[in-house]
Design brief:
Blueprint (H helix, E strand, L loop, with lengths): L1 H27 L9 E5 L2 E5 L1 H19 L1
Antiparallel strand pairs: 1-2
């Protein structure tokens, strides 16, 4: 039970960190409004998919996780 509790604390900390990055990332770094993000609007329908933002976050998380695996 002790290891499961530590795992939950670790997952919770990571989620809080990711949430903070998502909230502050758009204001500080311009995440969500990059040139590769797809935005389509027609009438009262709009579709938004942050493709470039997803790729950049994936690369950053891959680098961070590779440091933890060592």
């Amino acid at each position: 039970m002790d290891t499961i509790g530590k795992l939950f604390l670790l997952i919770g900390g990571v989620l809080v960190l990711l949430g903070g990055i998502m909230v502050l990332g758009g204001k500080l770094f311009g995440l969500g409004r990059l040139p590769g993000d797809i935005f389509f609007q027609k009438g009262n329908f709009s579709f938004y998919f942050p493709l470039a933002t997803c790729i950049i976050l994936s690369i950053l998380l891959t680098i961070i996780m590779s440091f933890f695996r060592r």
